[in-house]
C-alpha cells in the first residue's frame, strides 16, 4: 500500500474529527471532486429541466436514465480491468477530459439552438461511457490513499462532498434556469473539471498492485472473469449488490422531480432546485454525523434498516401535496441512503484485495448505477400508466418488499460486522 503523508502542523482537533484528510493525496482528490461535483450536478439538473421543456414527457425523462446505463453495463467491467492494470490517476485524467468536452458540447449546442432530445441522449451515452471507466478507478483509488482505520472516514467525507454537490448544484442550476441561463450551467461544469485536473497532477503516481506471483493485471477476458468470479463467490458482496440494485430500481424518483415541481407542487424552477437539493441535505447531515461518530456495530443490520426507512420515505414523498412535507420526505430519503451507501461501500472495499478493487467496483457499478438509471426508465413508464405520484408510491412499496426478502434470506449480510483494526487485504 502506498504510504500516506500526514500533516504534522494541521489543527489537531479538526484532523481528529476528519482523520482521512491527514492523507495528502486523498485531501487533494477530495477537494478536486468537491469543486467538480457541484458543476456536474448543475448539469444533471439543467439537463432534466431542458429535456422536459423540449418534450413535455415523463417517459423522455425516464429514457435519459436508460441511455446513461447502457454504456455502464456494456463497458464497466472493462473499465474495472483497466483500473486494476493501469495507474488509476492517469485513467481519471482521460475520463475527466471526456466529461469536460461533453459539457462543452452541451453548452455550445444549446447556445446555437441545435440541441434536441436525440442529441441529449447521444451525449448522455458518451458521458455514461466515460463514467464506466472513471468510477472504478476513482473508487478503487481511495483505499490506496488512506490507512484502513481511516477508510470509513474517507468514504463518509466522500459522501459529504457528493451530497454538498447535490445540494449546491441543483440550487444553482435552478437560479440560473429561472434567469434563462441553461447554457451557462454546462459551461460552468466544463470549467469545474480544472480543479480535478490540478489535483490529479499534484498527486503521486498510483502504479497497479501486483499479484502474489509478481504479475501485473491485464485487460483481457481472463481478468474480467477473475473479477466476476471473486464477486459472485463472495456471498456478502452478492447480497449488498442485490440490495443496491432493487432498492434503487424501485425507488428512483429523481428524474420525475421536474413534474412534481411544475405540475404537482406548482413551485417552478426555483422550487425544483430546492427539491433536487432536499435529499442531499439529509444525506449531508448524516454524512457529517457518521464522519465524527463512533463506529457503528452490526453494520449489516443497520444497512437493512436504513433501506427500510428509504422505502417508507419514498412512499410519503409520492403521496405528499405539501411542499414542506415533500422536502422533509426527500431529506429522510437522502439520510437513509447515505447510511446504507457508506456502510455498503466500506464493506466492499474491506472485503476486496487491492489488485481486484477496480474489477469489484465495476461489478458494483453495474448494480449501484444500473439500479437507479434503469429505475428512472421504469418510473417514467409507470408514471405514464399510473400517474407520477402513483408510480413513486408503488416504487416505495416494491422497495420495502425487496428489503424484506433480503433481510429474510441474506443472513450473511444481516449478521455482518466488520473489524476496523484488521489489515486491509
TrEMBL record:
<dbReference type="GO" id="GO:0005886">
    <property type="term" value="C:plasma membrane"/>
</dbReference>
<keyword id="KW-1133">Transmembrane helix</keyword>
<dbReference type="Pfam" id="PF05977">
    <property type="entry name" value="MFS_3"/>
</dbReference>
<dbReference type="InterPro" id="IPR010290">
    <property type="entry name" value="TM_effector"/>
</dbReference>
<keyword id="KW-1003">Cell membrane</keyword>
<dbReference type="InterPro" id="IPR020846">
    <property type="entry name" value="MFS_dom"/>
</dbReference>
<keyword id="KW-0472">Membrane</keyword>
<keyword id="KW-0813">Transport</keyword>
<dbReference type="GO" id="GO:0022857">
    <property type="term" value="F:transmembrane transporter activity"/>
</dbReference>
<protein>
    <submittedName>
        <fullName>MFS transporter</fullName>
    </submittedName>
</protein>
<dbReference type="InterPro" id="IPR036259">
    <property type="entry name" value="MFS_trans_sf"/>
</dbReference>
<keyword id="KW-0812">Transmembrane</keyword>
Amino acid at each position: 500500500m502506498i504510504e500516506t503523508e500526514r500533516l504534522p502542523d494541521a489543527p489537531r482537533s479538526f484532523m481528529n474529527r476528519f482523520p482521512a484528510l491527514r492523507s495528502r493525496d486523498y485531501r487533494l482528490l477530495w477537494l478536486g471532486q468537491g469543486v467538480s461535483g457541484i458543476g456536474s450536478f448543475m448539469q444533471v439538473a439543467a439537463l432534466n429541466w431542458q429535456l422536459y421543456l423540449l418534450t413535455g414527457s415523463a417517459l423522455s425523462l425516464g429514457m435519459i436514465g436508460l441511455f446513461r446505463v447502457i454504456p455502464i453495463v456494456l463497458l464497466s467491467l472493462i473499465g474495472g480491468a483497466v483500473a486494476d492494470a493501469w495507474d488509476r490517476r492517469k485513467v481519471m485524467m482521460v475520463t475527466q477530459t471526456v466529461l469536460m468536452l461533453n459539457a462543452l458540447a452541451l453548452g455550445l449546442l444549446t447556445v446555437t439552438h441545435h440541441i434536441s432530445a436525440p442529441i441529449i441522449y447521444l451525449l448522455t451515452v458518451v458521458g455514461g461511457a466515460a463514467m464506466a471507466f472513471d468510477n472504478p478507478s476513482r473508487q478503487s483509488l481511495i483505499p490506496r490513499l488512506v490507512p484502513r482505520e481511516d477508510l470509513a472516514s474517507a468514504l463518509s467525507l466522500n459522501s459529504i462532498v457528493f451530497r454538498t454537490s447535490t445540494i449546491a448544484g441543483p440550487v444553482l442550476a435552478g437560479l440560473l434556469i429561472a434567469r434563462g441561463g441553461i447554457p451557462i450551467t454546462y459551461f460552468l461544469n466544463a470549467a469545474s473539471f480544472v480543479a480535478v485536473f490540478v489535483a490529479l497532477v499534484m498527486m503521486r503516481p498510483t502504479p497497479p498492485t501486483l499479484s502474489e506471483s509478481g504479475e501485473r493485471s491485464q485487460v483481457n477476458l481472463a481478468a474480467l472473469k477473475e473479477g466476476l468470479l471473486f464477486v459472485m463467490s463472495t456471498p456478502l458482496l452478492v447480497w449488498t449488490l442485490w440490495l443496491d440494485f432493487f432498492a434503487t430500481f424501485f425507488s428512483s424518483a429523481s428524474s420525475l422531480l421536474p413534474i412534481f415541481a411544475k405540475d404537482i407542487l406548482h413551485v417552478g424552477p426555483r422550487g425544483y432546485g430546492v427539491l433536487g437539493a432536499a435529499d442531499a441535505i439529509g444525506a449531508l447531515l448524516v454524512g457529517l454525523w457518521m464522519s465524527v461518530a463512533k463506529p457503528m456495530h452490526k453494520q449489516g443490520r443497520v444497512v437493512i434498516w436504513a433501506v427500510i426507512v428509504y422505502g417508507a420515505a419514498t412512499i410519503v414523498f409520492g403521496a405528499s401535496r405539501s411542499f414542506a412535507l415533500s422536502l422533509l420526505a426527500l431529506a429522510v430519503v437522502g439520510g437513509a441512503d447515505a447510511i446504507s451507501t457508506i456502510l455498503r461501500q466500506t464493506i466492499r472495499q474491506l472485503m476486496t484485495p487491492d489488485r481486484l478493487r477496480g474489477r469489484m467496483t465495476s461489478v458494483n457499478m453495474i448494480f449501484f448505477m444500473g439500479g437507479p438509471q434503469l429505475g428512472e426508465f421504469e418510473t417514467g413508464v409507470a408514471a405514464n400508466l399510473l400517474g407520477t405520484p402513483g408510480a413513486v408510491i408503488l416504487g416505495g412499496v416494491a422497495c420495502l418488499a425487496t428489503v424484506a426478502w433480503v433481510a429474510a434470506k441474506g443472513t450473511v449480510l444481516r449478521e455482518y460486522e466488520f473489524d476496523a483494526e484488521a489489515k486491509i487485504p
